[in-house]
Amino acid sequence: xxxxxxxxxxxxxxxxxxxxxxxxxxxxxxxxxxxxxxxxxxxxxxxxxxxxxxxxxxxxxxxxxxxxxxxxxxxxxxxxxxxxxxxxxxxxxxxxxxxxxxxxxxxxxxxxxxxxxxxxxxxxxxxxxxxxxxxxxxxxxxxxxxxxxxxxxxxxxxxxxxxxxxxxxxxxxxxxxxxxxxxxxxxxxxxxxxxxxxxxxxxxxxxxxxxxxxxxxxxxxxxxxxxxxxxxxxxxxxxxxxxxxxxxxxxxxxxxxxxxxxxxxxxxxxxxxxxxxxxxxxxxxxxxxxxxxxxxxxxxxxxxxxxxxxxxxxxxxxxxxxxxxxxxxxxxxxxxxxxxxxxxxxxxxxxxxx
Length: 354
What we know:
This protein is mostly beta strands. 0% of the residues lie in helices and 56% in strands. The strands form 8 sheets. A 4-stranded antiparallel β-sheet has the order 1-30-29-28, with no helix packed on it. A 4-stranded antiparallel β-sheet has the order 2-3-4-5, with no helix packed on it. A 4-stranded antiparallel β-sheet has the order 6-7-8-9, with no helix packed on it. It starts with 5 loop residues before the first strand and ends in a 6-residue tail after the last strand.
């Protein structure tokens, strides 16, 4: 019993398909995004209240909503940026959800993934939103600039366009530095440097990438977790890049099914949760090696990867758990949604002792 325990504190069944869930910053509220059976978008806000989730606001949108982020919002305003099935990027004031405060046709097809940085006091530089789409493009948006992305990474005319399934900001430790990691359906993982507007690194993991996440956005790149189809996840040490070998990495099998997401604990960047297509959650801890880098035979610096150990695993449902969100305000408090149309608030214990 010394290990952390994963406890389902509250579970609530809803009447629509759930695609994303986020804690509203500095509150006991969550926002749930998805699609109604008739294809319209669902945006609902619930409050955690005496062991239950109380619906406090809901609104229906024209098109199904796929993903959302608070990452580019100021702490006081708590504006949610969402991507929908039509390729539209919208930013909502949660107090007044009738009309978006910012809206642009970001992509030709569905926005699969979204991430934000520069808000909530996380990351240096301007607040920006990254979107990835089925049209193969990754775009960066500044809500002060209407209709035109500040950066666009897409295949050249005539090249095949791969479905972009996941994006993540990282390396935003100074006003100038910022990068985006993107994962694609063919197993490609690409690191774009926004300062030099170049592809800094690319690699293929042989299976479609479901999720990429840096352990922290607002520090020099440290670690990156990438989850894929076929029950594998990879951890990359991002501190040292070798000219030919790239970044040191390890891979681990888990869940016996697709690993839908990986989310790092906001209070401890070396602990992360993975969610599985078999309805299970696994809690992991990364341990650093004695030396983070070493010299190869040509006297060139290369990274050294550490190890991961499983702290706990639990099966909550028979359906895939497609998204997961830790609370930044309360250590161990989390929420997840699955394809059985259920949202679950979780408590993970003993995180301070691992």
